[in-house]
Amino acid sequence: MNLFPRAIPFFVALIACLTPWVSSPTALVIGFLLASLGLVPAQFNLTKITKKLLAYSIVGLGFGIHFQEALAVTSNGIGIIITTIIGTLVIGWGLTKVFKLEQKLGYLISAGTAICGGSAIAAVAPAIKAKDEDIGLALATVFVLNSLALFIFPVIGHALSLDQHTFGTWAAIAIHDTSSVVGAASAYGEEALTTATTLKLARALWIIPVAFISAFIFRNDSKKVTIPYFIIFYCVAIGVSDLLPQFEAVYSSVFALAKRCLVVCLFLIGCGISIEKLKAAGAKPMLFGISLWVLISTSSLAWLTLG
Question: Which residues have a Cβ under 8 Å from the Cβ of 293 and sit 6 or more positions away?
Fold first, then answer.
């Protein structure tokens, strides 16, 4: 009974996130403040809820993307996807030694930076038999950087006058989690959102081979890999909307609802971050994550703007 009054701010904020007046960055900050004040209901498994809602939202976004456009975006960005994934993992391996970080912790942060943040960490962790504390530190580091990316990337994009396509590609390459990629891209524009979502999901497909390679590198016999099945349904949604264009009005409604659900996802992610968790992450993992993130962000931006 005593828990209900404390949960009221959480539910009020959750409802507010369903309205058009709350943006993705604002939702994230609200969630963080509630978590830091201890106003997030502990009985809810927010991580599980967020993961499922994010998957459904991404599938919904598929109804707003035309197949030929998605094909063009993916084919044009495949080179930078492969190069940045391999480059990030290799550079991360070296920086782990420089920072004298625990090897598996450094590898988890590198995998999260290279592919798709928390999802990649969750998939690679069992493959290398990472310790729970390493997984927690890696997730905390990635979540903090994702939070910063939501605010920093649009500002940099506007300052450099990046076009929609370039910004969307850059966001998909340099921002960790899919939710933050979509959040930053949606704040920049519709074309940026389409480009970023498509490229990020193409990038997420690399979870599977990277997890298997990781198991081999760390001499682990585990074959358990978290396969992002929502990517398959996302592709199906694109196909359906392309083959049955007469239902365009329905697709538009689903697409709009999916974007609003993504704002809720950012709020829930913020609810998983608190001042205590930031302190627990320590300075060294965060400095490692920032260094790797800056390298991948600046090099990919240079590739896109000067190449």
Answer: 113, 145, 174, 176
